């Protein structure tokens, strides 16, 4: 077995041991790399991941996705620790909807259903 393969398998073993020790679950968005999905306990879209976060009995949720998905997980599971491995993981579409932009749109579209 090549050295890189050994390192990879050892890393997977370490992740699994740490998940068990910390009573953690790894949730990964379906756009994550295959290596991330391989160690995840659940892979899905943002709605599926939020639903999974709401029902898990794990104490720690490691959320491999963008920041607003991890925020949703924390809202649905306020008693759990939610970890976002990459805190700068963002979504251009979500970032465009600032409070100011939404407020301006509401003022311009008073007849719209909000």
Q: What are the SSEs and their pairings?
A:
Blueprint: H1 3-22, E1 24-29, H2 34-39, E2 42-44, H3 46-55, E3 60-64, H4 67-76, E4 81-83, H5 92-96, H6 99-108
Parallel strand pairs: 1-2, 1-3, 3-4
Helix pairs in contact: 3-4
Question: Can you tell me about this structure?
Answer:
- This protein has a four-stranded parallel beta sheet.
- The protein has helices at residues 3-22, 34-39, 46-55, 67-76, 92-96, 99-108; strands at residues 24-29, 42-44, 60-64, 81-83.
- It has 114 residues and is an alpha/beta fold.
- The longest helix has 20 residues, at 3-22.
- The protein is 54% helix and 15% strand.
- The chain has one domain (3-89): NadA-like (Rossmann fold, 3-Layer(aba) Sandwich), CATH 3.40.50.10800.
- It has six helices and four strands, in the order αβαβαβαβαα.
Tag the structure with descriptive keywords.
114 residues; alpha/beta; Rossmann fold; 4-stranded parallel sheet
Number of helices: 6
The CATH architecture can be named as 3-Layer(aba) Sandwich
State the CATH class. Answer: Alpha Beta
Q: What's the N-to-C terminus distance?
A: 59 Å
The CATH homologous superfamily is called NadA-like
| Cross-sheet strand order for the largest sheet | 2-1-3-4
- H/E series: HEHEHEHEHH
CATH topology: Rossmann fold
Mean pLDDT: 88
- Determine the structural class based on helices, strands and strand pairing: alpha/beta
**How much beta, percentage-wise?**
5-15%
Helix content: 40-55%
Number of separate structural domains: 1
Shape: elongated
Q: Describe the largest sheet.
A: 4 strands, parallel
């Amino acid at each position: 077995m090549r050295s890189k393969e050994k390192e990879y398998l050892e890393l997977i073993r370490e992740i699994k041991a740490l998940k068990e020790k910390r009573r953690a679950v790894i949730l990964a968005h379906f756009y994550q790399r295959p290596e991330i999905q391989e160690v995840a306990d659940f892979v899905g879209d943002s709605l599926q991941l939020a639903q999974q976060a709401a029902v898990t009995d794990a104490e720690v949720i490691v959320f491999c996705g963008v920041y607003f998905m991890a925020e949703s997980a924390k809202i649905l599971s306020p008693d759990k620790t939610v970890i976002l491995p990459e805190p700068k993981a963002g979504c251009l579409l979500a970032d465009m909807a600032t409070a100011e932009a939404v407020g301006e749109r509401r003022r311009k579209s008073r007849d719209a259903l909000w």
